[in-house]
Design brief:
mainly beta; five-stranded parallel β-sheet; 14 strands
Length: 107
């Protein structure tokens, strides 16, 4: 998968992540991150996992057949989750935990 921790200003876009045993795309303790136009399928945990981050956009991704949540946001703020296709998650399609100022639209 793609693991981006302790970063400022990142663009994770146009990737295919498939068949990994952990989270497909994981972002932690990050600021100003764009996660867009990725295909994340058949992961062993969450498709896209965002934790302890601020100003994150999760847009226009296809997330499917993941054992955990499709998109999981924990302990984060100012997050926009828009225009994603989330299907066949083993847990929740989109899960929010202990986060504030989150927009979920047109998924």
């Amino acid at each position: 998968g793609i693991d981006a921790d302790n970063i400022v200003l990142a663009n994770i876009s146009g990737n295919t992540v498939a068949g990994v045993l952990s989270n497909g795309i994981e972002v932690g303790n990050a600021l100003l991150v764009n996660i867009s136009d990725n295909n994340v399928v058949f992961t062993g945990n969450d498709g896209i996992h965002v934790e302890q981050s601020n100003l994150v956009g999760v847009r226009n991704n296809t997330v499917a057949f993941n054992i955990g949540d499709g998109i999981d946001v924990e302990d984060s703020s100012n997050v926009a989750i828009t225009g994603n296709t989330v299907r066949f998650s083993g847990d929740n399609g989109i899960e929010l935990q202990s986060s504030d100022t989150v927009l979920i639209d047109n998924n």
